[in-house]
Amino acid sequence: MFSRSIKRSHVFSSAYKSGRLFSTTYNASQKSPTGIVFMNMGGPSTVEETREFLLRLFSDRDIINIPFQKYLAKWIVKRRTPVIEQRYSEIGGGSPIRQWSEYQASKVCSILDKTCPETAPHKPYVAFRYAKPYTEETLPLMLKDGVKRAVAFSQYPQFSYSTTGSSVNELWRQTLKFDPQRSINWSIIDRWPKNAKFVKAVSDHVSEKLQEFPEEDRDKVTILFSAHSLPMDVVNTGDAYPAEVAATVYSVMEQLNFGNEYRLVWQSKVGPKPWLGAQTVATVQKLEKADGYKGLVIVPIAFTSDHIETLHELDIELLEEVKKPELIKRSASLNGNSLFIEALADIAKEHFDSGLPYSKQLELDYKLAPPSEGIFNHVSELFGDHSTKK
């Protein structure tokens, strides 16, 4: 559990206490650093931050678009905050996602300083959508550090407009506010669902869990890849997420030589609207009743670091809803996995080598996306060199 394995770890102790692990300011005589900015939704590092996290989440019209949202968001948050606070208390007093993100970003930059000397030094940052450090906190820090070139590195392996897109939109809004002169030349890594080392790291963790079953049962165990679901009205826009999650799943099973039966299922449904299914809990309950049931390995395929959806929803809530919890094992999140960190560094190097400001798919993502407030007309308005001091 987080309270035993992460919160007390010396790896994160200084960052956790100060909250400013990457705040060093570069002198004018030094080469301007290249910012590597890990972007994600984030999570409250303490129970006390839960309410603000939820308020920002339910107020984001890129992920939840409802009438009278300003007022309904406050009402929803008032009702849900005590429940969610309790859940964070049960996983150790907060989400570990900030600590893992800062650790991963720091390690990636150390690798890039060696593999990409032409863009060195590389300086790590974290910019979360709904939790500290917020984008509006990170961007001024980057400007203070003299960053002129930065990569927005989405920590969602698979693109969705409601996740990566929301972070991109917020980066645009905060850029207009804090950097209207466009002194930072931005590019973005907007997806990486089939990176070979990422896939290998996931498959290694699955294999480790399969080894915990009796040898005679191992090939009869079902692998369930569980990803955060999406409302069907988002899916029906043509959002890339379902297809890209499926691509990751298939790649992992290729690595495992399709040695077990498997399915992709979906978790974290909220509210009465139709969501993408089948739902994780319902699928597990159905499989438990099937003849020859030998157990399951649950794989959090769209979450690369532990947070509440793994530590509570899968590790606690799911096991309370099933009849045979002893036959369910959860594949470990990637967190500090060294191969995964190598994967992130490789992805960044490939991005630098390509010279492209964003992937070929990002323009189509925005053509198909629902309207958003206060954003660009085209992604090229944000990414690329727009300095007024050329």
UniProtKB/TrEMBL annotation:
PANTHER family noted in UniProt: FERROCHELATASE, FERROCHELATASE, MITOCHONDRIAL
Membership in a protein family: Belongs to the ferrochelatase family.
Protein name in the entry: Ferrochelatase
Reactions catalysed according to its record: heme b + 2 H(+) = protoporphyrin IX + Fe(2+)
Pathway(s) annotated for this protein in UniProt: Porphyrin-containing compound metabolism; protoheme biosynthesis; protoheme from protoporphyrin-IX: step 1/1
GO CC entries: mitochondrial inner membrane
Matches recorded under PROSITE patterns: FERROCHELATASE (PS00534)
One of the GO BP terms on file: heme biosynthetic process
EC number: 4.98.1.1
Family annotation (Pfam families): Ferrochelatase
Role summary: Catalyzes the ferrous insertion into protoporphyrin IX.
Enzyme class: lyase
